[in-house]
Known about the structure:
- It is a single chain.
- By secondary structure, the protein is mainly α.
- The chain has one domain (2-139).
- Helix content is 74%, strand content 0%.
- α5 crosses α6.
- The longest helix has 26 residues, at 92-117.
- The chain is globular.
Amino acid sequence: MLDTLLIKTLILFLLLLYASISDIRTHTVEDIIPFLIGSIALIGISLSDIPEMLLSAFIIALPMFCMALIKPGEIGGADIKLTAACAFLLGIQKGLVFIALGLLLAVICNLILKKLYKDRYKEPFALVPYLSIGCMIACFMNSSI
């Protein structure tokens, strides 16, 4: 069982690293990444766990989806899909920790950058790296993913 957990965590880390680098460089993330995260979430679980996993993905990603509808262009589709996939993997409790940490980190870091660079810092920022850090922290919390 520990080997499966280690492999799932390593694959998740590599997928999130790839997605983060892609988002920083091009502000895009390939659609296959959330699909792969969702796929590794299914490793070693029972069919009875899937409804709760789907509910987690829906509950955690819904506020971001609504924000994207209210303010088009502020939150990208990749951010929403990655959020749903990570919440599907982590479950509701860790999913809430993941999204709270990721968004809090994004706000703090971008406030600091705006303060340091003043007028030069007006471009949109990549959210996926912050979400990835939040996801990995939540992943390492006291129980298995």
